[in-house]
Each structure stands twice: as structure tokens, then as C-alpha cells.
Write a structure and sequence with these properties.
10 helices; alpha+beta; single chain
């Protein structure tokens, strides 16, 4: 347990320092070269089993704009698995398998790790008490003060708002929507992505939408949280290969996500907790 918690703290330290590090390096290397440099550093850290160092490099990569290499998701899955965050580990590994396919260098290892995660979940379901001790659950519930405290420790955050903002952006990174669900082009980011920030009593949700010609349209939705219900609804539509998170103000569609029920549920729950946190004095 001590090793997993320490690993989580190392991952969080990278998230808090990433913005400064990326800014400092922005003038030294172009984004594509900086991405390659950080990927090489991550690979070396994982091979040496320096999980905290690998987590810091991955969090720096997360701050860079543009599509991440497929191997980024594999290494993130490895690091999150070592930190006992099974939900996020499996999500990252499944993203790697989808993007890299059978030709991926880590394809078989990723499949084995997904199987290991499933076995671990079965063992935990037989012994719930042991599961609670072995897995730091990254998914929070509406009244989960204990989980919020865990997130604050994980991200080394001073406030619930800060921890939840970091967490929801980590979830959104893996949940981007694509027009073509059958073929995932590794050289292109998702067609619809989101980034969440807060300011005062508002939550700002930036949508980054790419049309078929590659043009980018950015728009920002500002949500004034006072007076709205923090219970956020979500739903997946199999026919449209899309999951939706609905606006807590009026029930309209707010976030268009990939067709992954677990990801959509986690994002909706985390957004609800963020609304509740911003509502608090």
C-alpha cells in the first residue's frame, strides 16, 4: 500500500509542475520534438521501474497540445496500474490497443495487463475489505468526502476544486469523440475534445472541435454554478456510437464523448462533484 500511495504522489507532483516545465521548455524544442523527448524519457523510466519519474514525464506530456503517440497510453496504463488505479489503467490500455492495433509494439503486453486487471477486480469482489485496502479508487461519488481527500493527496492539491479539475481533465483526455469509430488515425487528435477550468463561481468548459478539413473551432461554455443541481446526468447512444454528459442547468447536451459507458459515468460524476465544490464557500 505504501508503494502505491507514493507512486500516486509522484504522479501528482508531475501534474502540478507540468505547466511550469512546459512553459520553460516551449522555446527550446518544437512540440513534436518535445513530445518525442518526453516519450523517450518515459520509456527509460518505465524500463528502470522508476514509476514516479515516469509519471512526471507523462503528466508533462499531458499538458502538450496535439495527439499523443499510441505508446503514451500504454505507458500511462502501466504507471496507473502500479499506483493501483485500475479504472484509469484499463481505460488507458484499451485506448492503446484501439489506436495501435495488433501491430503495436506493446499489443500483447497490453492485452495481458487488461486481463490482469480483470482478475484483480474479481479477487477484490470476493474480498471487498481487501479491495478497499489495495485499490485507491479514482472515481468519486456525489457524497464521497473520503474519495475527495484521496484525490487531494494524489494530486497534491490544496483544495477539492483543484483536485477535481485535474482529475476531470485526465478523464477527458481519454474520452475524445471521433467521427470514424472503426479507424483511428494515430496522426490526428480526436474530432471533439474538452478542457475544464474554474474561475470564481464559474466552471469554464472549452470545446475543441475539428471539422473534416482539419479546421479547428474553439468555443467556451461558462457555467454559473449557483442554483443548479450538482447531480449530472449522462447517457450513451449505441446507434450514434456516442456518450453524452448533459448540462445540469437545463438538461441539454453538454459533452460529446466516445462510446465508453465507464468513462462517461466517471466524467459525469466528477463534473457533479466539481459543481458542488465550486458552489461551496
Amino acid at each position: 500500500m505504501a508503494v502505491s500511495f507514493a507512486t500516486g504522489r509522484w504522479i501528482a507532483r508531475g501534474a502540478l509542475l507540468a505547466a511550469f516545465l512546459v512553459t520553460a521548455q516551449a522555446h527550446a524544442l518544437a512540440p513534436e520534438h518535445e513530445t518525442r523527448r518526453l516519450m523517450l524519457a518515459t520509456e527509460e523510466a518505465v524500463m528502470a521501474k522508476n514509476w514516479g519519474e515516469a509519471g512526471e514525464y507523462l503528466n508533462q506530456l499531458q499538458q502538450l497540445e496535439g495527439e499523443k503517440p499510441a505508446d503514451y497510453h500504454f505507458y500511462r496504463g502501466r504507471v496507473m496500474f502500479q499506483a493501483s488505479h485500475l479504472n484509469e489503467a484499463q481505460s488507458a490500455l484499451e485506448t492503446y490497443v484501439t489506436k495501435a492495433g495488433a501491430e503495436g509494439a506493446h499489443y500483447q503486453e497490453a492485452l495481458k495487463l487488461i486481463t490482469t486487471i480483470e482478475k484483480t477486480r474479481k479477487q477484490n469482489s470476493v474480498a471487498p475489505q481487501a479491495a478497499a485496502e489495495s485499490e485507491q479508487v479514482a472515481v468519486i461519488e456525489p457524497a464521497g468526502d473520503g474519495q475527495l481527500a484521496s484525490l487531494k493527496k494524489l494530486y497534491l492539491a490544496d483544495t477539492d476544486r483543484e483536485a477535481l479539475t485535474l482529475h476531470i481533465n485526465s478523464l477527458l483526455e481519454l474520452a475524445g469523440w471521433r467521427r470514424d469509430q472503426a479507424i483511428v488515425r494515430l496522426d490526428r487528435p480526436a474530432d471533439v475534445e474538452y478542457r475544464v477550468t474554474t474561475e470564481g463561481s464559474e466552471i469554464h468548459i472549452q470545446e475543441i472541435r475539428r471539422d473534416e478539413a482539419g479546421r479547428i473551432l474553439r468555443s467556451t461554455e461558462q457555467i454559473q454554478v449557483f442554483g443548479i443541481n450538482p447531480q449530472v446526468e449522462w447517457r450513451c447512444e449505441a446507434a450514434a456510437a456516442t456518450c453524452w454528459v448533459y448540462d445540469p442547468r437545463d438538461g441539454s447536451r453538454l459533452l460529446q464523448l466516445a462510446a465508453n459507458r465507464d468513462q462517461a459515468q466517471q466524467i459525469a460524476e466528477t463534473l457533479g462533484q466539481l459543481v458542488r465544490s465550486v458552489q461551496s464557500p
